[in-house]
Amino acid sequence: MGKAAKESNILLTPPLQPARQARPSQIPVPNNQPIQVSSPVYPIINPIVTTSLPISETSNIHQRLLQIPLYTPAYDRIYKHTMPTDGVILKAYPGRGSKEAPIFDGHKTSIQRYLEDINELCIQQGEDKDVAKIRKALWYVDYRFYDLWKQILSETKTWEENKLELLTHYPGLNSIYKYSVNDLMDFIEKYSMMSINNQENLAEYHCEFMVIASYLEKEKLMTKDDINRNYMMGLPENFHN
To answer: Where is the stretch described as Disordered (predicted)?
Structure first.
């Protein structure tokens, strides 16, 4: 080609223009709301966490967020070993040797009463099962009888069968007196050194006295006249007039 043709080709070919970048004001934003396009999108796992992006409720992003399942704790995995299957919440048992615990020391408390207390305690605690009663009967018994009871009690037998087995090893023990005359004398001596100066103290003395005295009268260990005479002995001098 000649020089004129080359110049003609140069004039016919338009020069390449660099691509123009749109200004931020020209980027279309739905509903004229600001949006952060450079931030990665993470799944929401906590309903308390909120986004700082003001998103319209009618936008596609809002609809997609509603479809993301929220995180919920696995309560069944946490509590399946501490919650009974029947929904009964187990309470804490009283400590061994505590005031609320059943007691059998082979002296004052009858074995039949002890076993009844064990039965009632397990029912109140939500464990009305033979195995629980057998274990608690062994747990609360006095240490002197533990080894013998451990050989007698069997979890393969029912609670009633175990009770009968225990009673055969303690013939006549059920007839041991719950209270003695000495118990009443000790109670009277204790209150004689106290100040009974109001109706509440007097009512407390009367109730505790009658618990022991009525038992002694029932077992023919004390007559009614003896009970009335000893009743006044526990009261202060001002009550004797």
So the answer is: 1-33
pLDDT band at 121 (very low <50, low <70, confident <90, very high): very high
Closest CA to 48 of 32, 25, 20, 70: 70
Task: Enter the tokens of residue 140.
Answer: 């609360």
157-179 pLDDT, tens digit each: 999 999 988 888 877 665 556 77
| DSSP sequence for the chain | --HHHHHHHHHHSPPP-PPPPPPGGGS--GGG----SSSPP-----TT---SS---TTSHHHHHHHTSPPP---HHHHHTTTS-TTSPPPPPPPPTTSTTS----SSSS-HHHHHHHHHHHHHHTT--SHHHHHHHHHHHS-HHHHHHHHHH--TTS-HHHHHHHHHHTSTTGGGS-S--HHHHHHHHHHHHTS---SHHHHHHHHHHHHHHHHHHHHTTSS-HHHHHHHHHHTS-GGG--
**Rounded to whole angstroms, what are the CA distances from 182 to 60, 84, 179, 187?**
88, 47, 8, 9
Listed residue (224, 176, 184) closest to 205, CA to CA = 184
Structure token digits, residue 27:
């980027």
Provide the pLDDT for residue 170. 78
- pLDDT tens digits, 32-71: 555 554 545 545 444 444 444 454 555 565 555 555 555 4
**Mean pLDDT for all residues in the chain:** 72
- Write out the two tokens for 170: 């303690």
